[in-house]
Structure formats: C-alpha cells, structure tokens
Design a protein that fits this description.
By secondary structure, this protein is mainly β. Helices cover 0% and strands 49% of the residues. It contains no helices and eleven strands. Strands 2, 4, 5, 6, 9, 10 and 11 form a seven-stranded mixed β-sheet that branches. A four-stranded antiparallel β-sheet has the order 1-3-8-7, with no helix packed on it. β5 and β6 (58-60) form a beta hairpin.
C-alpha cells in the first residue's frame, strides 16, 4: 500500500514563501500518476493547486499560477510545493495526493494533510 506524507513548517509569515514537501513510499510509484497539491481553507471546499507528472510537466490552477511552483526530486520519491507572497487567506490544510487525472476527483492516494497558518 502506498503512502504520502506532507512535511514543512506549520507557520509562515505574510509575504514569505510557503514550502512543503511530500514523501512518497510504498507501491504507488507508477509512471501514470499526477503528483498533486490540494488545499482546504478553514470552512471552505477543496482547491486544486497544481500537479507534476513524472516527465516534469506541470499544471497550475490559473488563480494561483503566478505564485505557485511544483517540483520533483531526481529520485522520484519526493515532490514539493512553493507558494510565494502568502497572505492570511492562504491559511489552509495542505494535502499532497496522487491520481490518474488533473483534479481532486481523480486522486487515488492522499496524505493526511498539514495545517499551515499564515500569520505574523
């Protein structure tokens, strides 16, 4: 069974860059997955942020594209999210996920999520 685990700081100051890493383990290192970041602000629904494929191709939510960067390490066991110029509105539970399509509905594996608060 595959697992995903988010890691990173739980508090980020306004205007700084939020950086999270997802560690992939187990039997989900398939070549056909989109490695994805999703967030859920308090009291709101899920928001698909972006994804990266094994060949390094990336896709971003247009509303976040100017501030978002997703990358993978060469081992393929980790992928990362950077969100720049954060504001308190970026406070959310951030999830990494893996699935066969672009969108929350296609995710087959999920991390547990990590709450990141943006506050001074």
């Amino acid at each position: 069974q595959g697992q995903l685990q988010e890691s990173g700081p739980d508090l980020v100051k306004p205007s700084e860059t939020l950086s999270l890493t997802c560690t992939v383990s187990g039997s989900i290192t398939t070549n056909y997955y989109y490695w994805t970041w999703i967030r859920r602000p308090p009291g709101k629904g899920q928001e698909w942020m972006g994804a990266i494929a094994n060949d390094g191709s990336t896709w971003y939510n247009p509303s976040l594209k100017s501030r978002t960067f997703i990358s993978r390490d060469t081992s393929g066991n980790k992928f990362s999210l950077q969100l720049s110029s954060v504001t308190p509105e970026d406070t959310s539970v951030y999830y990494c996920a893996a699935g066969s399509g672009l969108g929350c509905e296609f995710m087959e594996y999920w991390g547990k999520g990590t709450l990141v608060t943006v506050s001074s």
